[in-house]
Design a protein that fits this description.
Elements (H helix, E strand, L loop, with lengths): L4 E8 L2 E8 L26 E5 L14 E4 L3 E4 L2 E11 L2 E9 L5 E10 L5 E5 L5 E6 L3
């Protein structure tokens, strides 16, 4: 089951909750099965936030022309379009994120992006083929 779990939002009468399901079978995973779960699906995605690309984020608004990237647990939004996160896994310090992107013209593309946090609190960003690279600077919340 490792590598095959996803968390789904589920609406219960009178409340909302999260249900962990096996991605292949869509069946719920019960507490007795948790020893087989990839625990990264249970933790919040640590890279959530707004970033500027290749220049430090300025709090005074003087960087309005700098490209911004917003990462949520489900999406990556940038000048390239809105990308839905289909899966994410950790390989050492790097998060490998499989995305489906919708470009400005409506085109769709599947890709992997690598996000590697650095000691200076920036993130190295690259696509799967290493054809595009950037350094992301986190903006204050």
């Amino acid at each position: 089951m490792r590598g095959q779990t996803r968390v789904f939002d589920a609406l219960c009468p009178g409340r909302s909750s999260r249900v962990l399901r096996n991605a292949a079978t869509e069946r719920p995973i019960f507490l007795r099965d948790f020893h087989q779960v990839d625990y990264h699906v249970l933790r919040p995605f640590p890279l959530v936030g707004t970033y500027t690309e290749n220049l430090a984020c300025k709090t005074d608004g003087s960087d309005a022309r700098v490209s911004r990237i917003t990462i949520t647990p489900r999406d990556i939004d940038s000048v390239f379009g809105l990308c839905t996160i289909l899966s994410k896994k950790r390989e050492g310090a790097t998060f490998v994120v499989h995305v489906e992107c919708k470009g400005p013209g409506g085109s769709q593309m599947l890709s992997d992006v690598n996000l590697t946090p650095r000691e200076d609190k920036t993130i190295d960003f690259s696509d799967q083929d290493q054809t595009y690279k950037a350094v992301l600077y986190r903006c204050p919340d």
